[in-house]
Structures are given as structure tokens and as C-alpha cells.
Amino acid sequence: MIPLKLMLKIFSYLVFLGFFFLIVEAYPQSHLSDNFIASAEESDWKGFERFDFNFQGKKARLILPKKPLQGNPWIWRARFPDWHTEADSILVSEGFHLAYINTDNLFGAPEAVKVWNDFHTFLTVEHKLQQKVSLMGVSRGGLFIYNWAKENPEKVACIYAEAPVLDFKSWPGGFGESEGSPKDWLKLKEVYNFADDEVAKAYKNNPVDNLMELPSHRVPILHMIGLEDQVVPVDENTLPFVQKYIKSGGIATVVTSVAGEQSLKGHHFPIQTPRLVADFIKYHSIQALPLSSEDYHQSNGGMKNSLIKFSQNESGRVAFLGGSITHNAGWRDSVSNYLQNRFQNTDLEFINAGIPSMGSTPSAFRLEKDVLAKGKIDLLFLEAAVNDSGNGRTSTEQKRAMEGIIRHAREVNPEMDIVIMHFVDPGKMASYNQGLVPEVIKNHQSVADHYNIPTINLAKEVTDRINAGEFTWEDDFKNLHPSPFGQGIYGNSIITFLKNSYNKRQNMSDKTTSYSTPERIDPYSYDKGKLIDINEAQLAKGWHIDSNWKPNDNKKQDLTL
After folding, report:
1. Is 556 exposed, middle or buried (0-12, 13-18, 19+ CB in 10 A)?
2. In the chain, what percentage of residues exceed pLDDT 90?
3. Does the keyword Hydrolase apply (predicted)?
């Protein structure tokens, strides 16, 4: 094990953070609806408005700052919301919201994570709180914050944990140095549906397990620990956790509490530096707010049919149609993995119909052979913006081809969900930087809007992120065929779109419906396009087939006039 002193991060930068922050103009509190205020119980919390309410049958609370910071940043307490609230008070006084929901006896089990997912949606959608939240967990609260964060790393600004439980075999299991808690162990096994101790001990999704997602999203963590803690021993929880976190590339800070009264066998100790905790959270919540991928998504008709199909059926089929950016490994694999994990009880088939250099025109003609002939398609991802402009297709050709693909696909399956993606290249970045929308994106978007098809504008998102200083084209994204980093940008945005699209309440009685087909944009769109054998071609006057032609004879045509 790495010596403790090597695991404790030096965080001297926190000393000057008090001089670093500028309080920006507050948003008005209008994000709380009148109905919510009327239905909640209002009280005072240290001079601030506190609203207590029920959410999915569980007690919840929301504490409002007097002057919310821009973007409505917030902290989310897990368990023991009234314990060591000094840092909470500082943050609320400086513009943070403070939220809590009582899932106390669920020990961070999947049921708790589901409630937390819904609560996050409720606060961010209904009450406009910031998408990225700062999590705070005390003791067993570590199970809640880390299990939720591992499933939702893109929604986490940072994590603060105090004497956290990170492996339930340690506590409440008591299979190591801790005495554990037999009563809580029985409850935990029940909510996790463990048949016995051996099944519980074999479980491999404690916070200390499978850490790659959080470090890869650069989620910073800060732990306060007592070295003499006999209830939640640091050797079984924080120390092995932080060791793995750092080795996985994560940002971790550990602060030991060695002064003041230690009680409950070292598990309770004073927090002598609440300002440090507040500054840590404030720095990571406000200082570097990345752009939101959601701003580049257009839902239009939505994705309700594929959600119903993948949720209610044992099988489904997803196709990816495009050029080399679709063909190559990267974002497509990430999206496929997300979908299979999201719908674990459904056997999903994935069709890679990406062919290098192919834009919308060849895709319209090969759609039947390369996609539709594979079986009923429930979800189609479509891209052609890079190759359509690179191959010199006219605006008319671009619209006819894109319309042809959509009409042909929906003619075969009127319930098919379709997503159109606009990928990036230097030319598109140059257009956006001149205040112009690239012509090919205008053309594709006009067809998408006419047919109410969702779109993801990755060209604009990448351009804006580069201009915001999040990364560079030369060193990070590198090429229109993205680097692994660039593939991650694509994958994250598309998965964010899918998560938001599929984060809908549904009943098992819900049924798929056919999408309406509007009038054509162009009577000559390529919706009847298909590939045929050359011998089936009806040759126009003056054309003939040269049967002696060979691909290696340096001639560039197989039809001669």
C-alpha cells in the first residue's frame, strides 16, 4: 500500500482561493414554481428559506440562498443532513442551493440510485438548478454519493466525503477491522437482494470497485478522515479507494483530522477547516463550468418509440449509417455500450453501415442493401455533413439525399426513430467563427426540421468548446477523424442526448406509434434509391457496358460513352 504521506495531496492552492472568486450577478428565484412553493412546508434554516416536501413518497428538502449564483450551483447532502453543516452554511451564504432527499435505509442500493436519478432530474429540469452538482456524503453517505456518481459522472462537479463508507464489507458487514453493525447489515442485504453473506461479499460494485468512469471524467474528490476511526477504518475504505483513484488518473485530496475531541471510536471528529471544504466545492463548481452538450441537441419528435421498444421487448436493432467517422471505432462503440447497459434485458443488434468517404447520396442508394435488408430497424443514427461538403455535393443533392433516406426508412418502418448528427471539420469551424452556419448543416437541418427528426450539432459544440478554451483542435481533437479524446467528446454528447431522451416516465401499457409523413420537400428526392447489378441497368442512349474493363487497367470508368 502506498504510504499515507504519499497519498495526501498538497492543496496549497486553496489558500488563495478566497481572493479568486467573483460573485456574479444572481439569477432571480423565479425558477421555483408557485405550485411548488404552495405545496411545500416553508421554514427557516440559519436565516435562509427552507422548503420541505415529499418526492416519490420520500421526505426531501431544498434550502435557497438569498442571492443565487449564476447558473444555480448546488450541493447535495446524502444522509445526516444536519451533521457538520458549517461548510453548507458558507456555501448557501455565498449563493449555493442545498438539497437533500431521505433514502436513508437503502444504503446506496440501485433503488436509491434510481430515486436520486429522478430527484436530480426534478431539480435540474423543474427548478433549473445546475446540471453538475457537488455531492457531500458523511459515513454511510459515501455509498450513496459514489454509487450515484459512478452511474452519472457527467453530472458531478466534485465530491466531498467525511469518514465515508466505501466498501460495505467493512461496514456494516464487519468482515475486517470494524465491528460492523449486524442490524444494518441485515437491512443492507435485504435492499440489495443478497441471499446470504457470501453473495454480498462477492458483490463487485462497491464504490471502491470499478472506478474508471469518475477519474476519466476528471471528477475531483476531497475526503476528511480520522486516522483512529474504528467504525469505518481508513485502511479498508478511504486509503485503498484513493490509491485506486489516483492510479486511475483521478484528482484526490485527503485531509486528516488529528486535533480536537474524537468520539464514537474515532468516527466522529471536528471539522476545523470548513472554509477549505467550501472553497474546494466552490472552485470546482463555478470556476470551470464547461459548456452543456444539451445546448447543441434538438429533440424535435423525440425518441419515444425506441424507448418503448427497448424497454418492453426482448430484442431490438440499431443501425449507424455514415462515412468513415461512423465506420471507425470510437463514439459508435461507446453509444452501443451505453444502449446495451441501459436496456440490459434486451438483446440489441448493432449494424455498422459506415463506409469511408460516403455522404448522403450514396447512403440513400445503399440504404436498402446495407441497412434495411438486415431486418426491422428501431433506431437509426445518420451522419453525412463532413462528406457531403468534402465531396462537393450541391445543396439540392444534399437535401434530396437526406430526404430520401428519411422517407425510405420510414416507409419501411413508420415507427423508426432517427437521429441526424452534424460532425465537425475545419471548414465548418471557420464558418461558425465567422458567424455563419455551414451550408451543408443548414441543408440537413432543414430536412430534419421538416420531418421532425432529432439532431445533434457536434460541429457547433466542438467549435464552441475550443473557443471556450476547454481543449484545442491541434493537440486534442486533432482531425476530422477524431483522436480518442475527440471520439470521447462525440460519445459523451450523443450519450447525453440519449440519456435525456430516455429519461421519461413510462408505463408498460405504452405503445409505439407511427410517425406522420409530411409532404415532400423535393419531388425528386432519392427515397426509391437502391443499388442494382450493372446488368440490370437501363442504359440511356449512347451508353454501353465495356465487358473487357478491369479495375486495374488504369481506366476510371466502367461505363463508356
Report:
1. exposed
2. 69
3. yes
CA gap 497, 454 in Å, rounded: 10
8 A C-beta contact, residue 313 and residue 349: no
Cell numbers at 249, concatenated? 488518473
C-alpha–C-alpha distance, residues 490 and 34, integer Å: 38
Helical H runs in 271-394? Answer: 274-282, 304-312, 324-327, 331-342, 360-370, 385-390
Angstrom distance (rounded) from CA 561 to CA 270: 89
Question: What are 43's strand-pairing partners?
Answer: 50
Q: Taking a C-beta distance cutoff of 8 angstroms, is the pair 92, 63 a contact?
A: yes
Range 495-509 burial, b when 16+ CB lie within 10 A, else e:
bbbbbbbbeeeeeee
Mean pLDDT computed over 116-136: 94
| Banded model confidence at residue 258, pLDDT cuts 50, 70, 90 | low
Question: SS3 string of 54-71?
Answer: EECCEEEEEEECCCCCCC
Is 0.85 surpassed by the pTM of this model? Answer: no
Dist. CA 283–CA 277, nearest whole Å: 10
Tell me how far CA of residue 315 lies from CA of 310, 343, 375, 382, 498, in angstroms: 7, 10, 12, 21, 18
pLDDT at residue 289 in the model? 56
User: Residues 6 or more apart from 209 whose CB is under 8 A from it?
Assistant: none
